[in-house]
Amino acid sequence: MRRAFALLLALALAVSLTVPVLAAGDEPEEGQEPQIDLGMLEPGEGTVSFPVPEQEQTMDADLSALTLKVKQTLDIDDDYTDFSSDYYDGPSPLWSLGWSDETRQLTVEARPDGTVVNMYRWENGGVNERFYGFDPAFPAITMDQATAQAESWCEKLFTGEESARLDETRVYLGTEGYYRVSGTVLKNGLDSPITFDMVIDGSGLTSFYRRDQNGYVGELPEAVKGDEAGAEASLAGAVQLELRWVSDGEGGARLQYVPVGPRTVADPVTGEAVDMDALYESLDEKGMNYAYDTMAAEAPMAEEAMADGGVSLTETEIASIENYGDVLDGAAIDKALQANEALGLEGFEQARCSYAMDAESGDVTASVRYTGTMTDERLYGYSQEAFEQAVKDGQDMTIYKYFTLDAKTGAIKSLSTSYPIWEKQEGMLGLVDQAGFAEQFIADTVPELAAEVAGCTLKGYDEGEELTFARMYEGYFYPDDRIEIHVDPTSGVVDQFWYTWDEDVAFGPSEDVIDADEALAAYTDALELTLGYVAWPIDVTKEPDGPYADWLRWGTTYVEELHLAYYFAGTDKVEGVDAVTAEAVLDRQLEDAYTYDDLDGVENGDKIELLGLAGVGFSGGSFLPDQELTGRDAAVLLLRAGGNYAPEDDDERLAEQAYHQGLVPDGQFEPQAAVTRIEYLRMLLTPSRYGYAAALTGVWDAGFSDVDEADQAIAAIARALGLADGKKLEPDETLTRADAAALLARFMER
């Protein structure tokens, strides 16, 4: 991955420097800027550069203050050896801070005022401590301990007008296990639409995600109480219910009252009801946006914060931050780009200037966007008729130009341009050999890939003006490895170019593939025709001075509504059809939590409930603890404990999964047969880290008087893990569902 990114960056640099050169015989005089001829070029001709003005830089001071605030909030120690940072410009600017060393990584996204909106921490426990077979485990701490930690972190992460309420804690199994804590951000003690998630395991808080990175427009209204009785009556009067059957998601249905009325709120002062659905519908004509600006503008961190709480910067952090000390700010970059006439930025305004730092090299890249209005003088070969019609129709005539540059030297690395109209003037097409230019550019820029690609004819890759060159292997395209390139048909300039490549990809067999009809049948059989709602894009550019003017300037040009339509349900879960096996390829989904109505007074009922919360259990709402354990039951429990697909109603698939996960030998799965204690222990231990020891014979003495020699290893390991004790194991005793769950829970607590 790192190699692919490096190649991409180097290639982007080469593309950005490949622009039209001086016309023949037009050498510039001494001290004169190069004048660029936008006429036709031959492939591979010419590069230009431009001077970079000096400017004063203060971003490093702001970054220092922010870093100190984040370290104080998250209790970040000084032992990390590497530190890097990126800046994302916009209506809601964010800094991304990264710490790492040989065994740890920590990434934090924060607003300029220090508010943490996202955090992820990873620690490598060591390869020798991990086993990649059947190794489920409960978290190292209890749910109450995880909740207490979450409450403590909330006090640090939400301050001032904000506080938090914890809404749900879910347990997840794994080599170590963890809890996901979900909550709501309170504003002045009242609910808000902002929610968050925390992940907590035995090592503490490992991730935090706050769902309002873009913030909300305007100032926060004061919390006041009004006509509570009137509001309650208004809301009650707006409720509409229908009695209907509802699927339980497990093949059954239940009779239920379903709310069908509009989303309604009540005015806090008058108590009058407000139909929110109708309000949204009234805004559709003006254009709605899925993102929001920040709340009231937040001032940068004060310099005195640098000494607050006794927190200091490490030498590693200081060295990394110093990489921003000589970067060009947006104004300096704008001055440099505007001075280069080849870029055609006259009349354009800079709309964004973000920064990203390479953690290894310390190089900082600037990503800059410009907006300008297309006029008849800026057609660049586009149709005059189409231009005039677009103006008449009130179309947004904004041109967007995107640059990536070396933030210290101002050298251009890449450029792409988006025009509001695409119809070319008759006679302007075909002036250059686009494919020839593209092939020559690829050969000059990435010669190591040129011999492995060909013009891609796959649907979706052979449309539009962009050309796609995809990797070929055994006569078939592999579009994940591809080069995308666009050559202007008028001038021959390469104005878009990027590629992605994994040289280490391992290709599988390509013999005996099924035909298209068989694949189509397998795919459609895995889907379901459904009538429902789909997202529908709505143009918001018709109101350039409306409530979304700021977002229009940032390039947001549409929003989404829900429209009724027929569609195939399940396309998000069915990724395709295996061309060799003819089976639908499914996106593996873990089962949801299972809850039961028959565990009162059941021994180990708490363990069964905890397993159910982690997605390990049976559907139907009842556990049936005294029911005889079958091969199907055992496979479902153990497969789900290992995070694997376990269909309760498909014995053939269940047998396949049980075999592949090592629960049973091939052809020996008996879904309806009763399972004995020794059989269940063998299913439990064989695919685990103890499976190697369990396969040894003649070296074990389990200490049970009723265990055969062939089962001594399984019995001995079971005793060592606390899964069995005493003088007799009773290996041939049939287990109940509750017995199996209890043994599994004890294994996970080892």
Explain this structure to me?
The chain is an alpha+beta fold. It folds into five domains: 2-52 and 331-500, no CATH class; 59-210, no CATH class; 228-284, no CATH class; 516-586, no CATH class; 605-748, no CATH class. The strands form seven sheets. Strands 1-2-3-4-8-7-6-5 form an eight-stranded antiparallel β-sheet. A four-stranded antiparallel β-sheet has the order 13-14-15-16. A four-stranded antiparallel β-sheet has the order 17-18-19-20. α13 crosses α19 (737-748), α14 packs across α15 (651-660) and α16 (677-685) packs across α18. The longest helix is centred in the first third of the chain and has 16 residues, at 59-74. The chain starts with a helix and ends with a helix.
Question: Between the first and last Cα atoms, what is the distance in angstroms?
Answer: 37 Å
Number of strands: 24
Overall 3D form: globular
Sheet with most strands: strand arrangement: 1-2-3-4-8-7-6-5
Domain count: the total is 5
- Secondary structural class: alpha+beta
Strand portion, in percent? 15-25%
| Number of discrete helical segments | 19
What is the makeup of the main sheet?
Answer: 8 strands, antiparallel
- Report the uncertain regions: 1-52, 242-256, 285-307, 532-538, 558-565
Radius of gyration: 32 Å
Helix content: 10-25%
Quick recap:
The protein has 750 residues and is of the alpha+beta class. The protein has 19 helices and 24 strands. Strands 1-2-3-4-8-7-6-5 form an eight-stranded antiparallel sheet. Strands 13-14-15-16 form a four-stranded antiparallel sheet. It has a four-stranded antiparallel sheet with strand order 17-18-19-20.
